[in-house]
Structures are given as structure tokens and as C-alpha cells.
Amino acid sequence: MLDDRAKLLLKTLVERYIAEGAPVGSRTLSRASGLELSPATIRNVMSDLEELGLIASPHTSAGRVPTARGYRLFVDTMLTVQRERIAAPSLAPDQPQKVISNAANLLSSLSQFVGVVMAPRRSSVFRHIEFLRLSERRILVILVSPEGDVQNRVIFTETDYSASQLTEAANYLNAHYMGLTLEQVRERLQAEVETLRGEIAALMQAAVRVGTEAMSEAQDEVVIAGERNLLQVSDFSSDMSHLRRAFDLFEQKAQLMRLLDIAGQAEGVRIFIGGESQVVPYEELSVVSAPYEVDGHVVGTLGVIGPTRMPYDRMIQIVDITSKLLGNALSHK
Questions:
Q1: What domains lie within the chain, and their CATH numbers?
Q2: Which pLDDT does position 135 carry in this prediction?
Q3: Rounded CA separation 245/265 (Å)
Q4: What pLDDT score was predicted for residue 183?
Q5: Cβ 270 vs Cβ 290: under 8 Å
Q6: How far apart are the first and last CA of the chain?
Q7: Cβ-contact 114, 227 below 8 angstroms
Q8: How many angstroms separate the CA atoms of 217 and 197, rounded?
Q9: pTM, whole model, 2 decimals?
Q10: Rounded to an integer, what distance in angstroms lies between the CA atom of residue 116 and that of residue 107?
């Protein structure tokens, strides 16, 4: 799509804009690129890049700035990560929640932007289940995971179960389904419903339904650190609407969860540039993310959120290092 000259000028423009934060003019490009080109030739190339949607010209300046599309082309085809020594303190093994919080703070302090960590996905496998009658048609379901996590949920039933019926249902589930995921239990219950007494089958199905909801809610946890760092970023401090949109993203974690879920499906570091898709709906934000492993299995995602004008090469290294540190701190091996 672009010849070598246009690629070099675009690369130079993006690097200068990331470093200085000011629109880049033809004279600066000529000097920084090292190309022996006349100002008219450079202006023609800039015009071509602008028509392709790779750069834009702010109304207040004769210089150009990269667009989301320009950043994407730069990141995918022109970015070279120069390995630098990043002094990252180790993450000491501790309670998982504390390790995750420390990892978010580490991402924030190293990047000077916002660090986010999605807590490990918990197993939907159950080790033990109990039913406790609270009152007529109100039953407490107690679910214990293999890791020892306990989830409690109250269900309302159409039938008033006796203590012996509750014990019978719990014993059947523990004897036949222990070690299966709740989704597997649900499928097998549907297949075996005719062999079970109707009221007991209904109780088991209700228990599995609320258990699935409980496990799902327990997974929806994102730890965020360093939001105040964005106050120091000129791209945000000069426009409060940009800052408000960023903080809206942190407060409404559903969008962040979807983003981190998508990032977790990829191998290695992934970069999302604001405005190029609905994944990051804010043009002024970019996310550099990576999955992390515990005992050889991908269990979550972490990343750095900052302005589109960020030093991507350094962010890639910070995210990559922290994902390995977090995985090592949480692993049992």
C-alpha cells in the first residue's frame, strides 16, 4: 500500500508525535527522517497519507498527527522493540488477591499509566454441595470449589422440602457429579431427569442454576491501579471530556471485562488502539495487554491503559514481564 519513502515518513511522524506530543510539520519530518526531499515532496506524501486516513491535520496547526489507523499500521509493521533493562521488582507469593493487587500497582508504577489485572477465572467445578432449609420454600445452597472457595445462594422453591429430601438430593449430587463442571452437571441432569423423582430433580436443577450464577459473578473481578496517573497526561489534562470518558470506563467494568476477555484469547502481548473498533470505544485510549498463566494454564489477563500517544515498545516489555512475574507468584509449582 505504501512505498518505502512513505513508510519511513509515517514511522518518523508517529515516533516524533509520541515523543513530543505536538503536531509534526514538513520541516521537522525532513530533518528527522534523514531523507533528502524538498518540502513540496514531503507535503505531497503527507497529503497522500492523509487521504489514506493514516494521519490528520488539527485545525490549529499546519503539522500532522497519527490517526488510530496510522497507529495500527505503525504498531503492526514498523514498531521495533528495543529490549531495555526494566527494573521490575519481583512479585512475592502471597494471598492471590494481594498478589493481583501488587501486579496492578507494578504495571501502573512502571508505565506511569493505569494498570489492570483480571483476577484468575475460578473453576466452575464443585467439590461439595449442601442444602440448608431456612424456612418454608427457602433453601440455602452451599457450594464448595476444589480450591476451597465457598459460594452461598438462597433459592425459592415451589415445593416445601423436608430435611431428609434435602440430604437425599445433596448426597446424590456429591456421589454422582463431584468433580464435574456445573455445566456438565446441568447437561447430565437434563438427561437423567426422568430417572429422578420430579421434586428432587427440580431442586437439583435450581441449585445448579444459582451455582453457575455464583461462580460467574465471582469471576467478574478487575483490579485497577493508577487512575490518577492520567491527570498528569497532557492528552487528558487539556480536555476534561477525555478524562471523564476514561474514568467512566474504569467505573463501568463490564466493558473492561469484555476487552480483557478478548485479549485473553490471544497468545502473547496484544495492542488495542482506541477508535479503530468497538473494543476500545474511546479514540484517545489504547490498551496493551497479555494473558498470564498459572501452573501452565491461562487463567486471566492484565494490561496497561493509557493515551494512544504512548511508547508502545516500552509498554510491550512492561506487560510481558509483569505477566510472567504474576504467573510465577500464583503458581504452585
A1: 4-78 (1.10.10.10), 96-119+221-330 (3.30.450.40), 128-219 (3.30.390)
A2: 86
A3: 26
A4: 75
A5: yes
A6: 49
A7: yes
A8: 31
A9: 0.70
A10: 8
